[in-house]
From TrEMBL:
InterPro entries: Adenyl_kin_sub, Adenylat/UMP-CMP_kin, Adenylat_kinase_CS, Adenylate_kinase_lid-dom, ADK_active_lid_dom_sf, AK3/Ak4_mitochondrial, AK4_mitochondrial, P-loop_NTPase
Species the sequence originates in: Scytalopus superciliaris
Keywords: Acetylation, ATP-binding, GTP-binding, Kinase, Mitochondrion, Nucleotide-binding, Transferase
Function recorded in the entry: Broad-specificity mitochondrial nucleoside phosphate kinase involved in cellular nucleotide homeostasis by catalyzing nucleoside-phosphate interconversions. Similar to other adenylate kinases, preferentially catalyzes the phosphorylation of the nucleoside monophosphate AMP with ATP as phosphate donor to produce ADP. Phosphorylates only AMP when using GTP as phosphate donor. In vitro, can also catalyze the phosphorylation of CMP, dAMP and dCMP and use GTP as an alternate phosphate donor.
EC numbers for this chain: 2.7.4.4, 2.7.4.6
Protein name per UniProt: Adenylate kinase 4, mitochondrial
Domain Adenylate kinase active site lid: 126-161
Compartment(s) where it occurs, according to its Swiss-Prot or TrEMBL record: Mitochondrion matrix
Pfam families xrefs: ADK (PF00406), ADK_lid (PF05191)
Reaction catalysis annotation: dCDP + GTP = dCTP + GDP; dTDP + GTP = dTTP + GDP; a ribonucleoside 5'-diphosphate + ATP = a ribonucleoside 5'-triphosphate + ADP; AMP + ATP = 2 ADP
């Protein structure tokens, strides 16, 4: 079991705790946590062709389109053909899922189902450090000093689409794009859905599932 490379994806709407679950899986099982947001930030700072293309969209306040995100992710995945990995934030659309199919076969897709009201509350209380993408939640994971990043001392910002009036539209948009992706992986028998309002309560079930696929390097209690 240990010799086979594990290729996994975590799907979930904004505010679902996807990043937290991915970090715990990476720690507990030794998988590379590959975040599309992180790679996009790096490509913006790298000065390459794809970064320049992404920047054009972001500067106009537009979503970075499929073909740009896909190029960023394919480049990164090509470098990691001999590693266990876990994708966070990709694929978000059917087009992205089909592009991923062309370079690898997924073993496992975890889908986080969190009630709409919980997502709305979490997103409205969310503030980020723009440089690193570090996320704080004023209700359960606040910074040490209000409005200031713990590590750099730089100011935090609330993203436009985390403001209460924008959240409902954003969640609807995610749901519409994600539905065919979820159906695709469900039809292949590799989709596992977890529902709840607290990441800590969902986590033991995720840990048990992963343990059946790859030997853990940390016990559940150590996380």
């Amino acid at each position: 079991m240990a010799s086979k490379l594990l290729r996994a994806v975590v799907l979930g709407p904004p505010g679902s705790g996807k990043g937290t679950v991915c970090e715990r899986i990476a720690r507990s099982f030794g998988l590379q946590h590959l975040s599309s947001g992180q790679f996009l930030r790096e490509s913006l700072g790298g000065g390459g062709e794809v970064g320049a293309l992404a920047k054009q969209y972001l500067e106009q306040g537009l979503l970075v389109p499929d073909h740009v995100i896909t190029r960023v992710m394919m480049t990164e995945l090509e470098k990691r053909q001999e590693q266990h990995w876990l994708l966070d934030g990709f694929p978000r659309t059917l087009g992205q899922a089909k592009a991923l199919d062309r370079i690898c076969e997924l073993d496992l897709v975890i889908s986080l189902n969190i009630p709409f009201e919980t997502l709305k509350d979490r997103l409205s209380a969310r503030w980020v450090h723009p440089g690193s993408g570090r996320v704080y939640n004023m209700d359960f994971n606040p910074p040490q000093v209000r409005g200031i990043d713990d590590l750099t001392g730089e100011p935090l910002v609330q993203r436009e689409d985390d403001r209460p009036e924008a959240v409902a539209a954003r969640l609807r948009k995610y749901k519409d794009a994600a539905k065919p992706v979820i159906e695709l992986y469900k039809s292949r028998g590799i989709l596992y859905s977890f529902s709840g309002t607290e990441t800590n309560k969902i986590w033991p079930y995720v840990y048990t599932l992963l343990s059946s696929k790859i030997p853990p390097i940390l016990s559940d209690e150590e996380n």
